[in-house]
Amino acid sequence: MSERVEADVVVVGSGAAGLTAALNLAAAGRQVLVLSKADISAGSTSWAQGGIAAVLDEGDTFESHIEDTMVAGAGLNDRRTVEYVVENAAPAIERLAALGVPFNPGETVSERWHLTREGGHSARRIVHVDDATGWAVQKALEKAALASPNIRFLPGQVAIDIITERHAVDQGFANRRAMGLYALDRESGRVRRLLARAVVLATGGASRVYRFSTNPDGSTGDGIAMAWRAGCRVSNMEFNQFHPTCLYHSQVKNFLITEAVRGEGGILRLPDGTAFMANHDDRLELAPRDVVARAIDAEMKRLGLPHVLLDMTHLGAAFIEQHFPTIVKRLRELGVDPVTQPIPVVPAAHYSCGGVLVDLQGRTDLSGLYAVGEVTQSGLHGANRLASNSLLECLVFGASVADTILGSFEATLPPADVRPWDESRVTSSDEEVVVTHNWDELRRFMWDYVGIVRTDRRLERAGHRVALLRQEIADYYGNFRVTPDLLELRNLVEVADLIVRSAQARKESRGLHYTTDYPGLSDPPRDTILYPGLAG
Ligand code: FAD
Ligand code: SIN
Q1: Ligand 1 center–CA 394 separation, angstroms
Q2: Which domain holds residue 469?
Q3: Probe ligand 2: pick from 45, 135, 259, max atoms within 8 Å of CB?
Q4: 288 CB within 6 A, ligand 2
Q5: β-pairing, 157-164 with 178-185?
Q6: What is the pTM of this model?
Q7: Which of 69, 221, 248, 373 has its C-alpha lying 20 to 30 A from 233's C-alpha?
Q8: Tens digits of per-residue pLDDT, 80-131?
């Protein structure tokens, strides 16, 4: 019999989104379980470098931040969402400061915090903690959550699927709703039932579906796949953001060189020292990410280069060491001194702009199921996320999801009696190689065929391969006991399918989706929305 744990709310994910929601729920007296599939700090939040965007400077305006977000998003943003997030940014930053996040102080008397600049922003508006903002945010949120008597952390739990009325013992139970989830406990290998009146997905993005990524291992799109299987719509999955400047190194594959380096004057160069951004965009190094990533990709393809260079040597040792201490330390450990040498960089998959479709309250299509953070498509990012708007989205929506749940909590039914996880028809696998092989193959063809530049032919090739892998992985899943790797692979192939289908549906080039078969824009701009009833 699988163990049954019950709380008021289950939050899946302990990054900025999940912890913000949990803290707000706990502050109102609700008992919250917070799951993470590995260590509590292992999500993307801890890795964020550049900072958080907010209108904090007297010369800056909401309108300018809104406009910059919509320009980057190439006409697909939902203006209401953009306004909501931008207008709630400053209070969100204040809450973090109150929790002890030591934002870098300003350099003049009138400036409370130092504001850096990043691509696509027409003003200095990024608060940061040196070049390791995410770590400071994660630690402050964790500290507050660990101190709360209403929050119970369950690390090492891999959520498998949402429990709905389909899993109820009494099948006469009619209303469609989420009542918890099944999760694999890594230590015991047993599957638990975690039950609650509300479930919040805060599982982060899916960029590890690509061979090269700036993300930690766990960004495998689990929440997107779970919500989809539970009957929720997903949207804009074709817009996976490639960060222009990931370190190119033989051993270290996912170390980001923050956009703030370009914001502070870093220059992209070819190996012979030629600066090349002027050939691609008037905004040079500060063009939005999709433009810069495509420019680098084009130069690498044109000249057959394995990487380009990001040069900040002209900024001087004192400035570089003061502004980018984490990057300097890590690069020196790896034998590159950014004070005297340009840094070898390549684009890498960085952020999922698409995801589970949510409204301004963080509600999904399934009653009782909410989603927040990178797992969602909230309308904020459109076809391309503006730098440093992501942590902000986690903070603002984390609070609004909690408000929504609290507002309807009393009227929500407690979870029904649900069936335990059934392992009666499966055995332990004797061929783990199937998982590792399929994992490598999937990431490789996603990189080659569904990357920065796409064509109909490449997408078709990817689609065929996804279909084969999906079948093979479904058979394997049906016959063998679940493991963390198998669960991630099952989700990755689901997400790959959603990305390919969304990319095939978009017959234009917009934002992060660029195809040589349809180089122009179509009118009017439309979100890609996939409906679960039509799942292949
Ligand atoms: P995450 O922080 O990724 O957390 C996901 C959580 O879900 C983890 O706890 C994980 O264990 C858990 N989880 C996932 N699947 C399961 C499962 N099946 N079962 C149980 N638990 C699960 N954004 C900015 O705004 N500014 C920046 O400067 C910035 N820099 C970045 C630098 C890097 C290198 C990277 C990778 C991203 C950066 N981003 C930045 C993006 C930003 O960090 C992320 O979008 C954001 O942190 C996502 O937060 P989240 O809470 O949604 O998810
Ligand atoms: C970076 O520091 O370049 C990442 C910022 C972001 O992803 O928003």
Answers
A1: 9
A2: 433-520
A3: 259
A4: no
A5: antiparallel
A6: 0.96
A7: 69
A8: 999 999 999 999 999 999 999 999 999 888 889 999 988 899 999 999 999 9
